[in-house]
Amino acid sequence: MQHTNSMLTLLRENVHAKYRATFHNTDVVEIQGLIGVLLLQGVNHDNHLASSELFDIKLGAPSYRAAMSERRFCFLMRCLRFDNKQTRTVREAEDKFSAVKEIWEPFVKNCQDIYCPGENIAVEEQLLDFRGRCSFRMYIPNKPDKYAIKPMMVCDSRLSFMLNAIPYLAKYTRRVADADDVRQHAGDFDAASAAVESKPLAQYVTEKLVKGFSGSGRNGTADNWFTSVPLVKSLRDDCGLTFVGTIRKIKKEIPYEMLDKKNFASCQSAFGFSRDMTLITHASNTSNTQKKLVYPVSSMHDQPVMSDNGKPEIITFYNATKGGVGTFDQMCCF
Question: Which end of the chain is less crowded, N or C, counting CB atoms within 10 A of the terminal residue's CB?
Fold first, then answer.
């Protein structure tokens, strides 16, 4: 409310005198009403409609007009701010996520406090459609939402409830993910980044996302962007968590014999075991010209067990538990 009122005061000076009474300062109750209107849009699947359609007397829901007028709604959305804009430039030099960080961290903490996840959690990225001005907005031409912000998150595999999330800010991601290191180095962000630079970004972010579940005995599932052999070992030894995921064929830990397609017929699998994990090469059920090999790795399974569908149990388990974030993304969109 405080930061939004600062923006309201600034923009009200450019409004014609006869409209200024409409653009008065807001209060906590009205901010709650604004959030209620936005939530109701999602519930009614109206979040793709223009404001003129939402507040239309014939077509729009009466609940929107009962909360506020269309002009007031548009003006509040334009002025809505979550931080002090006057000091943002200085803070953005150190933290690219500073514009919404004051509200982001309490929101994530509330999600963790009110929900106890099941035995399986899923780690993946989400793409949030966004076309506003943002230094870490991404352009991905082969996605439905070509312009998007990408938070990396962990969700419950069964109910897809969000448990933790870290925004992807390219080279600044580590700084946002590890505020403790920043405070330890007395605000020296370069020193804080150097302290954790030895780990790949995917491993570093995954460890931060699941840190709150250390010692719980849960299992994590992720795709090949997040998964690596050092990550699986680190989570098992340091956090007491098992992990199931797929790794890319370029990883040096995969033996050469498990990389050659000529060694595998359709639907054939090869198992490799070490002291603390299992690696599989599985050939997809396609013709030899289109045959594809996938490489699941697991610290949860230690036996070459096959499922009823002819696939290794590790692959069946991976397919059943990997979709937590994907389902969460669908629920947000539809």
Answer: C
Query: Whole-angstrom Cα distance, residue 211 to residue 105?
Result: 15
Q: HSE on the CB side for 172, CA within 13 Å?
A: 14
Name 77's Cβ contacts closer than 8 Å, sequence gap at least 6: 34
| Closest CA relative to residue 171, chosen from 98, 96, 89 | 96
Given this structure, which CATH class describes domain 89-333?
alpha beta
Domain with CATH 3.90.350 in the chain: 89-333
| Parts of the chain with a pLDDT under 50 | 183-186
Q: Cα(202)–Cα(323) distance, rounded to whole angstroms?
A: 18
Alpha helices in the chain (DSSP H): 2-12, 28-43, 51-54, 62-67, 70-79, 88-92, 101-113, 173-177, 179-184, 189-195, 201-209, 229-234, 313-321, 324-333
* CA 329 to mean position of chain CA atoms: 9
DSSP 97: T
Backbone angles phi, psi at 26, to 5 degrees: -95, 175
pLDDT attached to residue 185: 47
Q: Can you list the positions of beta strands (E) in 39-167?
A: 120-125, 128-129, 138-139, 147-149, 151-156, 162-167
* Termini Cα distance of the chain: 29
- The three-class DSSP label of residue 321 is helix
C-alpha span between 221 and 227 (Å, rounded): 9
Tell me the two tokens of residue 200: 């790949």
Count of helix runs (H) and strand runs (E) in the chain: 14, 12
Residue 328 φ then ψ, to 5°? -60, -45
* Cα(301)–Cα(138) distance, integer angstroms: 37
Reference 155, options 229, 92, 209, 91; nearest CA is 209
Please state, in angstroms and rounded to a whole number, the distance separating the CA atoms of residues 22 and 2. 18
Beta-sheet pairing, 162-167 with 219-222 = unpaired
3-state secondary structure of 153: strand
